[in-house]
């Protein structure tokens, strides 16, 4: 008990040493995450209210696909297409540029979906959210590395991850009551498309406020070192890209597998709870709030787990323990038991995520960090290019059962890949 208390005390004592820039980043993260959490809670419900779950869109050479699935898949595709140009921009102008630009694009995406909800325009505005996410993903970790020292770095990464998950939970809790308030104010039904569109407008306001704390910071400059002539040479840039990409390869295998599994199920978890248990808006908001808060609190245990099991050992352990919870969620007999299982699964699956990023950053040169973290997050997003579209088709024909099984298998493969790549070689070296 005393040993654990001293670890917590030493852990918390590092908080005052966090730099001003890092504190402003945490405020930015809270505002951005809160707004995005509100929109995420009601995204699928807005599509249901508009009738897009039953409509299909014919794509050239690909045939008809559910609009519900395309709304999740096409933003991921847009993110993949834009990732390299956006990485170059962040490398040239620094991570603060990427954080501010990502928030502005995200706000535009939310406002566009609130104001122009036709199928094609909704798809276009949703796609804008893909590059917005890429800008945040390739900028956040380099920004934290630049504005933290080795002693408080694990604390900053854990605080950031915990804050994102915790604020997402609070955003879901507040958001759960928004439809009733907005419905009464607008004098329209609570579960109408107009109410859900209005929640997107509220979310956009929070996201627009996010960049303000960062605007007062001085420009942080390029991540890549400047050449004497300050001239971009395409050959050199491509060579750097190739070298940095090779350095990132061991870190993208597990995220890619987990992404393929998560994309089949996690975006539609609110639909699963509504369609199977009839969960109302307020209940969904409360459930996702509790999931977020519990997961955020669990994430703060990541540094303690790292001391006890090592960074990668903690990642493998928590990922493996989350798999039985996923299977239990598929057979839960009532809403609140399902909510408790979902809470446990999310906490286990996400609590060691900051350790994975910090581990990758510590084993990467500073100039390579934007592309490495970009490829890691790109791998986490790659499954979403096709996964949600396939999932929507399976939901129509077979329900959610096959999706739970497929997700569990891919999660297991991701945890096993981390063990084989990072833990097993060390074990043989010690032997």
Automatic annotation (TrEMBL):
Q: Which UniProt keywords apply?
A: Membrane, Transmembrane, Transmembrane helix
Membrane topology of this protein? Multi-pass membrane protein
* Species this protein is from: Candidatus Viridilinea mediisalina
Q: Cite the PROSITE patterns for this sequence.
A: MFS
Q: Which GO terms describe its cellular component?
A: plasma membrane
Location (main, coarse): membrane
Listed Pfam families: MFS_1
The GO terms describing molecular function are: transmembrane transporter activity
Cellular localization per UniProt: Cell membrane
Which residue range or ranges hold the Major facilitator superfamily (MFS) profile domain?
23-426
Its transmembrane ranges are 25-52, 64-90, 97-116, 156-182, 194-215, 248-270, 282-302, 368-387, 399-422
The organism's superkingdom is given as: Bacteria
Q: InterPro entries from the xrefs?
A: MFS, MFS_dom, MFS_trans_sf
Which SUPFAM superfamilies does the record associate with it?
MFS general substrate transporter
What is the name listed in the Swiss-Prot or TrEMBL entry for this protein? Major facilitator superfamily (MFS) profile domain-containing protein
């Amino acid at each position: 008990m005393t040993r654990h208390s001293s670890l917590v005390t030493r852990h918390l004592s590092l908080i005052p040493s966090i730099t001003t820039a890092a504190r402003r980043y945490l405020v930015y993260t809270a505002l951005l995450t809160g707004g995005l959490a509100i929109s995420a809670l009601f995204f699928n419900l807005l599509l249901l209210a508009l009738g897009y779950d039953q409509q299909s869109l014919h794509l050239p050479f690909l045939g008809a696909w559910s609009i519900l699935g395309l709304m999740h898949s096409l933003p991921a595709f847009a993110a993949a297409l834009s990732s390299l140009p956006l990485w170059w921009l962040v490398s040239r102008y620094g991570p603060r540029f990427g954080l501010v630009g990502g928030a502005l694009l995200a706000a535009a995406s939310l406002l566009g979906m609130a104001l122009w909800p036709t199928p094609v325009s909704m798809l276009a505005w949703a796609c804008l959210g893909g590059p917005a996410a890429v800008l945040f993903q390739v900028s956040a970790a380099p920004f934290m590395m630049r504005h933290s020292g080795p002693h408080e770095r694990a604390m900053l990464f854990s605080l950031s991850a915990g804050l994102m998950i915790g604020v997402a939970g609070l955003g879901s809790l507040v958001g759960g009551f928004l439809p009733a308030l907005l419905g009464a104010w607008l004098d329209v039904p609570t579960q109408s498309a107009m109410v859900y569109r209005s929640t997107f407008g509220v979310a956009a306001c929070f996201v627009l406020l996010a960049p303000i704390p960062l605007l007062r910071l001085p420009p942080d400059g390029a991540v890549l070192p400047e050449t004497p002539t300050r001239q971009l040479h395409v050959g050199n840039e491509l060579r750097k890209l190739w070298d940095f990409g090779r350095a990132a390869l061991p870190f993208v295998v597990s995220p890619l597998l987990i992404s393929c599994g998560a994309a089949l199920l996690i975006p539609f978890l609110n639909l699963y709870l509504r369609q199977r248990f009839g969960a109302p808006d307020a209940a969904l908001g409360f459930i996702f709030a509790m999931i977020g808060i519990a997961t955020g609190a669990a994430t703060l245990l990541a540094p303690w787990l790292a001391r006890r099991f090592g960074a990668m050992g903690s990642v493998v352990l928590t990922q493996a323990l989350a798999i039985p919870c996923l299977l239990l969620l598929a057979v839960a007999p009532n809403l609140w038991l399902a909510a408790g299982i979902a809470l446990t699964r999310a906490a286990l699956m996400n609590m060691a995520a900051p350790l994975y990023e910090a581990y990758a950053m510590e084993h990467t040169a500073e100039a390579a960090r934007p592309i490495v973290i970009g490829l890691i997050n790109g791998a986490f997003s790659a499954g979403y290019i096709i996964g949600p579209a396939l999932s929507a088709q399976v939901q129509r024909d077979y329900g959610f059962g096959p999706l739970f099984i497929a997700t569990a298998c891919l999660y297991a493969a991701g945890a096993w890949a981390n063990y084989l790549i990072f833990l097993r070689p060390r074990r043989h070296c010690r032997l």
